[in-house]
Specification:
- The protein is an alpha/beta fold.
- It is 37% helix and 18% strand.
- The strands form 4 sheets. The chain has a 5-stranded mixed sheet, sandwiched between helices. It has a 5-stranded parallel sheet with strand order 10-9-11-12-13.
- Helix 1 crosses helix 10 (393-405) and helix 11 (416-425) runs parallel beside helix 12 (442-451).
- The radius of gyration is 24 Å and the shape is globular.
Amino acid sequence: MGLPADDIDGPDGQGERISTGQLAALSHEFRTPLSGVLGMARLLEGTRLSAEQRAYVSAMRDSGEHLLGLVNELLDFARLGAGKIELRAAPVPVEDLLRAVCELLSPRAHEKGLEIAWASPDADAVLIADESRLRQILLNFAGNAVKFTAKGGVLLDAAPTRDGRWRFTVTDTGPGVSQSARDLIFDAFAQSDPSHQLTGSGLGLAIARRLALAMDGEVGVETAPDGGAVFWFEAPLETLAASSQAQVLPLAGLRVGIASANPVVREAASRQVLACGGEPVVADQVEALLPLTGPQDVLLLDHALGQAGRKVRRPFDRPALILLAPEERDRIARYRASGFCGYLIKPLRRASLAERVLAALHSAADQPQAPDDDRVAPAAAPGARVLLVEDNPVNALLARTLLTREGCSVDHALTGHEALAALQVGTYDLVLMDMRLPDITGEETTRRLRSAGVETPVVALTANAFQEDQEACMAAGMNGFLVKPLAVEALRGVLSRWARRPMAEAVWTEASDRAKFG
């Protein structure tokens, strides 16, 4: 959103005003060193540490993430208060939106022993809305739910109301919100519990309410049926007509058994089976599920049911799929060897669930094995050649380490001119471009590449997290946008989309000269 240069008052409301450009620079100056701290803490956690050292690193990372959250909320709140919020409406698939939020927060939830999932009876619907603002509201609600929930999990849902509006809900199994706090919780700097002052600024929910009001909507909180809280957002959003393909019910007439001790996993899987036309049967243990199902039914069994990390035993007389967290992918081969028909990665994806249930009903000779989930690939871009343009040595070390783990070969340029020179003599599958370089900006470097006819994908690597920063990157000819500190799943997504090579391209020098110029 474009804001006037003098829209934000100084501390006394009368002195110097902070311009949009100064605010963006302030954001970068805060986020760059924080990115280095968090990135190094994450790398350190992957090394051999004593229990005491691991506790220290975990505390350091948690403190850094807390500070980064405060910075983001303070800057975003200031910008939203500076003028009218400009919304950019575009088609938004409901399921893609819910899935993106859940999968982004999944690592944080699993670290706490929680599950996060989504399910919507109208998942095939496409809304006309500002996707980034919808996602910001849901990330705020779901992030808070993960933060304050000790066991169980978080469930996201979306559905149309009778009066033509859409209602998004985030339900958790946490402590809930007292009646007296509900009128204050969406005010700036308010906390529902004084102890929460140690874990947040109190601005996140105020930001969500401002965004909701900009959409002619509203937000609120209620008590969940089983305790916990239900945060909701409702607004009048136009719905595009569903395609004929959306009416297909792949599991019609089939019964699917679901066994998990976690109520969120059971509820989400049950709703997704229903959305696919199937009949779900749920239980909290495998033994309780067996009398409710028969040999013709496919079972979904949660690996978390295993005691002390042991495998879950498959019932000998019926097909079964194992449910795993992404970090448990090393168990896939062992479960297949023990007779399981396949696996599903949590949080569950509706299309994958239907596909694998149908595959489990047929023998390997009758139906090809379902493809692996992209969240279990050992390396996102083996053999890819990446040019990393980054002047900060700590952030460069982090990016190089993560890229190498994903199978990439990395060249490093410190400046925009070094990047231009490297692309004159070398061929690359992807360029990761820092936006603030010591000579020319990442935007200007990319413009020069594009004007020279270079078509290599360029993805911004930046500490600036505002919507207009992303738009500036795209206007300069970039293909994507990564925010520091680098998150592994976000990097894997970029590599999978822009840098994955066909199997025939085993050596980088055999690639086309699409990245050469001059």
